[in-house]
Structure formats: C-alpha cells, structure tokens
C-alpha cells in the first residue's frame, strides 16, 4: 500500500463510504479505486486527486497533504544514479536490496533523518 492509498482508505472509512459508492461518484470503477488504495496503480494524476479532494470536501492544508502523498506514492520507485557519486549509487542499491527487512519504526527513523538533512538548519 502506498502513502496515498493508505490515506484514501482512511478517508473513505472515516466517512463510512464503500469503494463502490465512491467510485461511482468520482467516475471510476471500484476495481480502479481498490487498485489505487493497494498501490497497484501508478500515481494518480492531478485531476483524479482533485476529484478525491472534492469528494471528501478536503480543504487547504489537508488537500495539499493529499496531493503531496499522491506525488510520493510511486509503487515502483526507480532511482537513476547515473552522473552521481559512487556513494549515491551504493545508497540507492543498499536501500533497494534491504527495504523489505526494515520495520515501520526503522523506516520512520530513516525518513525523519533524511528530511532533517534535506531541510537543513533553517527548518529546526
């Protein structure tokens, strides 16, 4: 499941809406909606995210967060390290080879550390 799929499922369940009901309302099949929730489809396009935002009447920061989650939900991420340092290639390959061995707590730590590094001291 992708971050977007997880959030979509949570929103739908909080509203007490079935996949079939929601799918009919936004103009897709229930199978497509299920595939989005489970991460078996690629990242939804901007128009689809807007339909979902409108369907749930999501506003401002929550809408931006849903869009961000959609953009960060490639179920088959590819990292092109051509032109980068050997260490960057090593990092990409190590993550690719070992991600299935990481539990949620370890992934949370790695994400927090990476975000802190990328945001720098200005965001602290």
Mind explaining what this structure looks like?
This protein has 124 residues and is mostly helical. It has two domains: 3-71, lambda repressor-like DNA-binding domains (434 Repressor (Amino-terminal Domain), Orthogonal Bundle), CATH 1.10.260.40; 86-123, no CATH class. Helix content is 65%, strand content 0%. It is built from seven helices and no strands. α2 packs across α3 (30-38). The chain is elongated, with a radius of gyration of 17 Å.
Percent helix, as a range, is 55-70%
Q: Which superfamily, in CATH terms, is the homologous superfamily of the largest domain?
A: lambda repressor-like DNA-binding domains
* Structural class by helix and strand composition: mainly alpha
CATH fold group of the largest domain: 434 Repressor (Amino-terminal Domain)
CATH architecture of the largest domain: Orthogonal Bundle
Tally of individual domains: 2
Write the layout of secondary structure elements.
Elements: H1 3-14, H2 19-26, H3 30-38, H4 46-56, H5 60-71, H6 86-98, H7 104-119
Helix pairs in contact: 1-5, 2-3, 4-5
Considering the chains and any ligands shown, give keywords for the structure.
65% helix; elongated; 434 Repressor (Amino-terminal Domain); 124 residues; 2 domains; mainly alpha
